[in-house]
Each structure stands twice: as C-alpha cells, then as structure tokens.
C-alpha cells in the first residue's frame, strides 16, 4: 500500500511505540466484530501480525491472508504467527492481488488513515469479500482520546508549528465516527456500525513513555528525530512536566480506537 516511505517500515520500533497498545485493542475489535467460526479472511495492512493473531484465536477462521507493503513488518509477522492457517504476502491496499468475492471477511487495523485514497482502499476490501460477508476496520482516535500522541503533539506544536505537518490528529480527519460511517455507507456497505474501543496505556516511568519516540517509526517519532538535539531535549522536558505522573513515576493515559463494520450487499 502506498504509505509514506519509511514511516512504518521498522517492525521492532513499531512494537515499542504502538504495537504493545495495538495488541490490547485487536482482541476487543475481534470480539465486537462477531466473526463466526470458519471462513476465509484477509488482513490488509497486517503489520507485525497483531490482528491476524487475534483473529486466529478469537474468530476461528479457516485461513487468513495477511498483506502489507513493508518487508520488515512481514518478516516479524511470519516469525510471530506460526499458525498454518495464516500466510503473509507483500501487497498494495489500493490494488489487492486477490480475486473478487474470495473472502468472507476483510479487516484492517490502524491503517486506513495512512492511505492516500481511503475510498479506494475500502472499495478494494468490499471487492474481495463475498456477498453477505463483513468488512471491518479500526483506527486510532488521533484528534481526541489518543493521549499518547495528543500530549506529544500539543507540546510539540506549541514549541514548533512545523509539528502540525506530522500530527495525525490534523492529517487524519477520517478517524472520527461520522466520517467513518459515511465512508462505509458510500462504499455500499449495509448495517454499518461504529464503536469506540477504549483501553488504558500504562507506562512505568517517563522514560518508558519517551524512549519509543526515538525509534523514528511513525509520525510522532519521525518528527521527534528530525529535531536538533537541543530542541528535542526541550520537547522532552516540557512533556515531562505536562504528563500526569503517579507517586511512583507511573503514567496512565487514555487510548481510544474507533471501529467500523458493515455487511457486503447481496
């Protein structure tokens, strides 16, 4: 899928930055999705295999095909998901290699907002699902209750307006209930539902929160590592004073994803 080069290519860095929280959201999404046992599934933008693994455990599919454009992610997914029902392949979310009506379920986790043509991506998901099948996805609530990033970008933008060019809360207006519902309806999907999935992100210390921003994978880390050392240190210290910190240095932040699903007509 044509995502900005280098944004999400490093699997290990992604795991430290967002993977640990994605791992908590994925099973909640699968439970809400209500996918029955059996059937064929495609996981578009499968990343490191977090959603694929959750589907294998919670939905009982006959097979899952995971597709991603990043070789680093696919390498990690293959290493971590050994279930023989799962296979992984490199591909483009806007031009899937699969045939029409090949799957009972098409899913995508935390990917839609990074695709340049969201309607085309959803149309591809619909195309590969049989009539009566399900299309479902979820995205982080970047503009609202995604406090890991909101604290970061609110502080960064106050110090440097250039940070807004990296802020997914500004760049990804689709990550809200109304736009998601409209996108699914425009794709011809029926019985469309949108649901919030809320978790708590618990950090042992400020360093546990800060260190993943130095990995360069994702919009906020990419911005962070573009700064000269002095500016990065100022951002770090401003964040330290802003974040809600417990008596033992722990930090608890709210994290929300918006999930959407619909049925393919026919």
UniProtKB/TrEMBL annotation:
Protein keywords: Methyltransferase, Transferase
GO molecular function terms listed in the Swiss-Prot or TrEMBL record: methyltransferase activity
Keyword Methyltransferase belongs to the record: yes
UniProt domain Methyltransferase type: residue ranges: 42-135
GO biological process, one term: methylation
UniProt keyword annotation of Methyltransferase present: yes
Superkingdom of origin: Bacteria
Protein's recorded name: Class I SAM-dependent methyltransferase
The organism of origin for this protein: Microvirga terrestris
Organism lineage: Bacteria, Pseudomonadati, Pseudomonadota, Alphaproteobacteria, Hyphomicrobiales
